[in-house]
Amino acid sequence: MTDTVSGTSGTSGTSGAPGASDPSDAPGAVRPPADPGAGGFTEALAEATAVASLAPSSHNCQPWALARLTGERARAAARLFAGTGNRTGPAGDGTETLALAMDRTRTIGALAAHDVEMRVSCGAYWQLLLSALAAQGWHPEGIEYPATDGEGRRLAGDRWPKSWSLLGVARVRRTGDGDGSFRRLRETAAARRTNRGPYRASGIGTDVLAELTGPSAGAAADAPVAVTHLRGETERRAFGDFVARHGGRDFSHDAAWRETFAYLRPNASAAALRGDGFTLEQLFGPMSAARHHLLRTALAPRTMRVLRFAGYPGLLASQLAAIVRRTPAVTVMHFLADEPSGADMVRAGARLADYWLRATHAGLALHPVSVVVQHDDVRAALAERFGLRGRVFFVARLGHPTAQFPATPRHREAAAHLRL
């Protein structure tokens, strides 16, 4: 059975309410203070960026950047809201202005599809940030997306980092002391992670799936995205066959695999020191030191160039396909358009973050199967095989995990923003 929900709208619900190459996961540690909200915007933003830093991103590269615009720069940004119906007053009348950017020093780009992934990752960060601010009483009164990535320099001049591409601007206003939901949002964001292990064979109820695809708020509201669930046995088996046929593509693509391997840290300590990337344990679960050494050697780009002639990428694809076939549901997210705009990509990332947090709150886990969306011909074949309209940008296993996977470290944590 295939369920598709298109372009959900409305303003009810928040990220984390009951019903992010692979987006990665969040550290398990959760800070214990009570719900914030009584302080000023500086304190609220520090709390919000700490939550937003837990957003999923491909390769755990964390490509987002954030600027707080003040003074003349905030007034310059106000023109983005003129005539949109979002502007409720002049800049500086108790509003705060935030600018979301993509930091190209932290992006991946071996494949053309990676640009979409980076913008989607930034959108996931944006949704968590705005949701965390709203939970503390700072609600968006307007969100706008500039026509070009270079708009940031027009807003902030030479102070705008050259490596940053402006993606969105939001104006927020204090409307109260918060609704008490911040703690749950923070805990759910910390619990969210990619789980690549086995899932229980039991199905997922239609009521649960309906909660996952319900209306979203913030940057995710009215996102031009459809969600399709493949959950019939025939469909899941067909998807497993598709993965078996195409899942070795990344391993046999020199540039893509070199880039992926560059984010594979030798151990947890090295990952913690770098604050990004992932370890073999986060890919395959706990393993002995001997297996760790053997697997890392086998996955090294130089080794992979030799092993591909022996069919090793196909073997890895068949192993992934086997676990996919045992999964109770597969989540597919696709744009409503074949050629989405940059704004569509950011809003899609916001929708993905909302979906993933709702799944986490429901006790479900996600394991992205990104190889089927990163190559144009494979992605087109996937859409044709399962009758998916628009461009597919996210595919993942969905189910109740039978084991926990370790969290990935984060480079950008609290107060990770630039004040301009």
Describe what is shown at a glance.
40% of the residues lie in helices and 15% in strands. With 420 residues, the chain is an alpha+beta fold. It has two domains: 160 residues, NADH Oxidase (3-Layer(aba) Sandwich), CATH 3.40.109; 209 residues, NADH Oxidase, CATH 3.40.109.
Count the strands? 10
| Average pLDDT level | 87
Q: How does CATH name the architecture of the largest domain?
A: 3-Layer(aba) Sandwich
Order of helices and strands: EHEHEHEHEHHEHHHHHHHHEHEHEE
- Globally, the shape reads globular
- Characterize the main sheet: 5 strands, antiparallel
Gyration radius (Cα, Å) is 21 Å
Strand order of the largest sheet: 1-6-7-9-8
What is the fold-level CATH name, i.e. the topology of the largest domain? NADH Oxidase
Number of domains: 2
Q: What's the tally of helices?
A: 16
Q: What is the CATH superfamily of the largest domain? A: NADH Oxidase
Q: Tell me the name of the CATH class of the largest domain.
A: Alpha Beta
Q: What percent of the residues sit in helical stretches (DSSP H or I)? A: 40-55%
Note the gap between the termini: 51 Å
How does the helix and strand content classify structurally? alpha+beta
Estimated share of beta-strand residues:
15-25%
Structure explained in plain terms:
The protein is α+β, with helices and mostly antiparallel strands and 420 residues long. It folds into 2 domains: 28-187, NADH Oxidase (3-Layer(aba) Sandwich); 191-399, 3-Layer(aba) Sandwich (NADH Oxidase). It has helices at residues 41-52, 71-78, 113-135, 151-156, 182-191, 206-212, 233-246, 249-252, 254-262, 268-274, 280-284, 289-299, 301-307, 312-325, 342-361, 376-386, and strands spanning 2-6, 64-69, 95-103, 138-144, 164-174, 225-230, 329-335, 365-368, 392-399, 418-419. It has a 5-stranded antiparallel β-sheet with strand order 1-6-7-9-8, sandwiched between helices. A 5-stranded mixed β-sheet has the order 4-5-3-2-10. α3 packs antiparallel against α5 (182-191), α3 (113-135) packs across α15 (342-361) and α5 (182-191) crosses α15. It is globular.
